[in-house]
Amino acid sequence: MEKISPDVTTRVVVPLLLRDFQNTNPGIRLGALTALCQMADPKAVPLAVLQEALDDPYERVRQEALWKLSRMPDQRALAVPALIRVLDDPEPLVRNNAVIFLWNIGPEARAAAPKLITLTNDPDSGLRQNVIRALLQIDPGRWATNRP
To answer: Which of 7, 40, 104, 135 lies 20 to 30 Å from 97 when distance is taken between CA atoms?
Structure first.
């Protein structure tokens, strides 16, 4: 099987997938985003598309966008404002993944600390534990306790 050249991917495939991402069918949007996220070049997916996907009504599209963002280290800090919005997601798994992603960003996610603090009262105990871990990673000097 012949490989598609990066030039063809950029000129032809990416625009087609971006068009499909605008489809009203959530399955088609998910398929388009998944295909974009599986491309070898992490920059093939514009950050704006991923940020838009974080607000998609379909939970699996939001999850896919979080997954892709977590694999774009040079874009992670730019994603913090969108991730703060995702902390209000109605789906616990989406919120939890956003918390884990902010945890992995570390100090560059400091703007998320006030919202994370509100999640320490979330009914999901796993989420609460991850929120504490995220706060410790984001601002260890503020949240770490002194231990003997």
So the answer is: 40
